[in-house]
Specification:
single chain, two-stranded antiparallel sheet
């Protein structure tokens, strides 16, 4: 490690110490773990599909697009990419909304809000998408504006008993920017909990 890179490394440790209010050893471990961790969740080889076992057919079916694994794979070759939710209109390109959670929201649980987002039919939360009051929601380019409008209407109960929108702001991100957020969230998860099984 050269002088400049050692200086950057120490600066990163000091930054982590300041941001997380931890001692040097804890910060060094977190920085080292994040550096050793993969840059994002590993590719599972399923082309974005999320297959669940369907007992009545004894097959695996993607709960996003509805396609069976047996038909998504052609002659044991690469799997066709998932077209996503039906509301995506078959578009395989992805964009993201980075939502900012209302800080005055009473805790309703993330599952309830994730369910409301999924109910729109044109967006869904992604694995490693929630961190520090920010939610990353996947969508398709042609419906992301409508998703942003619908998400802005999701209500929540505030700590003082009133109601307000669950999110106070939203930023539209490109596919690459969304993947970068996922990679950062994944690295933070690995630093805190270790590599998920």
């Amino acid at each position: 490690m050269g002088t400049g890179s050692m200086r950057d490394y120490r600066a990163e440790i000091r930054k982590y110490m300041a941001e997380h209010q931890v001692n040097y050893t804890t910060a060094k471990r977190a920085v080292d773990t994040a550096a050793a961790a993969p840059s994002g969740p590993p590719d599972d080889g399923f082309g974005g599909h999320e297959f669940d076992y369907e007992a009545r057919t004894d097959l695996f079916r993607c709960h996003l697009c509805g396609q069976y694994e047996a038909t998504a794979r052609s002659d044991d070759g690469p799997i066709e990419p998932c077209t996503g939710l039906p509301g995506y209109g078959g578009d395989t390109e992805r964009v993201y909304l980075l939502l900012h959670e209302n800080p005055r929201r009473a805790d309703l649980g993330t599952a309830w809000i994730a369910g409301r987002i999924r109910e729109t039919g044109i967006g869904r939360t992604v694995r490693f998408g929630c961190r520090d009051g920010r939610w990353l929601v996947e969508s398709a380019p042609r419906v992301v504006d409508e998703l942003q409008r619908r998400v802005g209407e999701i209500p929540c109960t505030l700590v003082d008993g009133g109601t307000a929108p669950a999110f106070t702001g939203a930023e539209q991100l490109s596919s690459a920017e969304g993947r970068q957020v996922i990679a950062e969230n994944y690295a933070a998860y690995v630093a805190k909990y270790g590599v998920p099984q």
